Amino acid sequence: MNIRLTIDGHPVDATLNDSATARDLAALLPLTLNLSDFHQTERIADLPRRLSTSGAPEAAAAKAGDLAYYAPWGNLAIYYRDGGSSDSGLVILGHVAAGDIERLATADQVTMEAAS
After folding, report:
1. Half-sphere exposure (CA, 13 Å, Cβ side) for 17?
2. 3-state secondary structure string across 14-67
3. Range of the domain at 12
4. Where are any strands of DSSP class E within 63-108?
5. 30: domain CATH number?
6. How many domains does the chain have?
7. In whole angstroms, what separates CA 27 from the centre of its chain?
8. Is 0.90 surpassed by the pTM of this model?
9. What does each of the 116 residues of the chain score in pLDDT, given as a tens digit?
10. How big is the CA angle at 30 (ends 25 and 31), to the nearest 5 degrees?
Protein backbone atom coordinates (compact mmCIF):
# COMPACT_ATOMS: atom_id res chain seq x y z
CA MET A 1 0.00 0.00 0.00
CA ASN A 2 1.33 3.41 -0.96
CA ILE A 3 1.09 6.10 1.69
CA ARG A 4 2.08 9.73 1.92
CA LEU A 5 3.88 11.14 4.91
CA THR A 6 3.97 14.86 5.46
CA ILE A 7 7.02 15.58 7.57
CA ASP A 8 7.15 19.12 8.93
CA GLY A 9 5.17 20.30 5.88
CA HIS A 10 7.12 18.30 3.25
CA PRO A 11 5.42 15.41 1.39
CA VAL A 12 7.31 12.10 1.44
CA ASP A 13 6.30 8.88 -0.33
CA ALA A 14 6.34 5.58 1.53
CA THR A 15 5.07 2.04 1.09
CA LEU A 16 3.56 -0.30 3.66
CA ASN A 17 4.17 -4.04 3.30
CA ASP A 18 1.34 -6.58 3.24
CA SER A 19 1.64 -7.76 6.85
CA ALA A 20 -1.39 -7.83 9.15
CA THR A 21 0.31 -5.27 11.39
CA ALA A 22 0.85 -2.86 8.47
CA ARG A 23 -2.79 -3.32 7.42
CA ASP A 24 -3.85 -2.52 10.99
CA LEU A 25 -1.81 0.71 10.85
CA ALA A 26 -3.38 1.56 7.48
CA ALA A 27 -6.84 1.23 9.09
CA LEU A 28 -5.90 4.11 11.43
CA LEU A 29 -5.02 6.53 8.61
CA PRO A 30 -5.08 9.47 8.40
CA LEU A 31 -2.96 10.15 11.49
CA THR A 32 -1.00 13.14 12.72
CA LEU A 33 1.66 12.20 15.25
CA ASN A 34 4.19 14.15 17.30
CA LEU A 35 7.69 12.70 16.97
CA SER A 36 10.59 12.53 19.39
CA ASP A 37 14.12 11.29 18.88
CA PHE A 38 15.22 7.91 20.19
CA HIS A 39 18.94 7.01 20.37
CA GLN A 40 19.80 9.35 17.47
CA THR A 41 18.59 6.57 15.18
CA GLU A 42 14.83 6.87 14.90
CA ARG A 43 11.87 9.16 15.44
CA ILE A 44 9.14 7.61 17.56
CA ALA A 45 5.48 8.40 18.22
CA ASP A 46 2.68 7.00 20.32
CA LEU A 47 -0.19 5.52 18.31
CA PRO A 48 -3.84 5.94 19.33
CA ARG A 49 -4.04 2.20 20.07
CA ARG A 50 -1.87 -0.91 19.93
CA LEU A 51 -1.61 -2.70 16.59
CA SER A 52 -2.27 -6.38 16.06
CA THR A 53 0.91 -8.43 15.77
CA SER A 54 -0.89 -11.66 14.91
CA GLY A 55 1.13 -13.43 12.22
CA ALA A 56 3.82 -10.74 12.32
CA PRO A 57 7.05 -11.64 10.52
CA GLU A 58 10.20 -12.48 12.46
CA ALA A 59 12.03 -9.46 13.85
CA ALA A 60 14.60 -7.94 11.54
CA ALA A 61 17.26 -5.29 11.99
CA ALA A 62 15.81 -1.92 11.01
CA LYS A 63 17.44 0.00 8.18
CA ALA A 64 17.37 3.74 7.49
CA GLY A 65 13.97 4.57 6.01
CA ASP A 66 12.09 1.72 7.68
CA LEU A 67 8.69 2.29 9.23
CA ALA A 68 8.29 -0.07 12.17
CA TYR A 69 6.08 -0.91 15.11
CA TYR A 70 7.70 -1.62 18.47
CA ALA A 71 5.14 -3.93 20.08
CA PRO A 72 6.42 -3.82 23.70
CA TRP A 73 5.82 -0.05 23.85
CA GLY A 74 3.05 0.15 21.24
CA ASN A 75 4.73 2.91 19.26
CA LEU A 76 5.61 3.75 15.69
CA ALA A 77 9.28 4.12 14.78
CA ILE A 78 10.64 5.80 11.65
CA TYR A 79 14.35 5.09 11.21
CA TYR A 80 16.70 7.71 9.80
CA ARG A 81 19.79 5.57 10.55
CA ASP A 82 20.29 1.80 10.52
CA GLY A 83 19.00 0.29 13.75
CA GLY A 84 21.63 -2.36 14.38
CA SER A 85 20.62 -5.77 15.74
CA SER A 86 17.09 -7.08 15.45
CA ASP A 87 14.77 -6.64 18.39
CA SER A 88 12.23 -9.35 19.14
CA GLY A 89 9.40 -6.81 19.46
CA LEU A 90 10.14 -4.83 16.28
CA VAL A 91 7.81 -5.37 13.31
CA ILE A 92 8.88 -3.74 10.02
CA LEU A 93 5.81 -2.14 8.40
CA GLY A 94 7.24 -0.53 5.29
CA HIS A 95 9.78 1.93 3.95
CA VAL A 96 10.17 5.64 3.17
CA ALA A 97 11.42 6.61 -0.32
CA ALA A 98 15.23 6.72 -0.30
CA GLY A 99 15.66 10.40 -1.17
CA ASP A 100 13.57 11.56 1.78
CA ILE A 101 15.25 9.77 4.69
CA GLU A 102 17.48 12.66 5.80
CA ARG A 103 14.38 14.79 6.48
CA LEU A 104 13.41 12.38 9.27
CA ALA A 105 16.36 13.21 11.57
CA THR A 106 14.87 16.54 12.66
CA ALA A 107 11.16 15.89 12.15
CA ASP A 108 8.83 17.01 14.95
CA GLN A 109 5.53 15.92 13.40
CA VAL A 110 4.30 13.53 10.74
CA THR A 111 0.95 13.17 9.05
CA MET A 112 0.30 9.79 7.45
CA GLU A 113 -2.42 9.19 4.86
CA ALA A 114 -3.26 6.75 2.10
CA ALA A 115 -1.89 7.74 -1.32
CA SER A 116 -3.71 7.12 -4.58
Report:
1. 14
2. EEECCCHHHHHHHHHCCEEEECEEECCCEEEEECCCCCCCCCCCCCCCCCCCEE
3. 2-114
4. 66-70, 75-79, 90-96
5. 2.40.100.20
6. 1
7. 14
8. yes
9. 999 999 888 999 999 999 999 999 999 999 999 999 999 999 999 999 999 998 887 778 899 999 999 999 999 999 999 987 667 789 999 999 877 788 888 999 999 999 97
10. 75
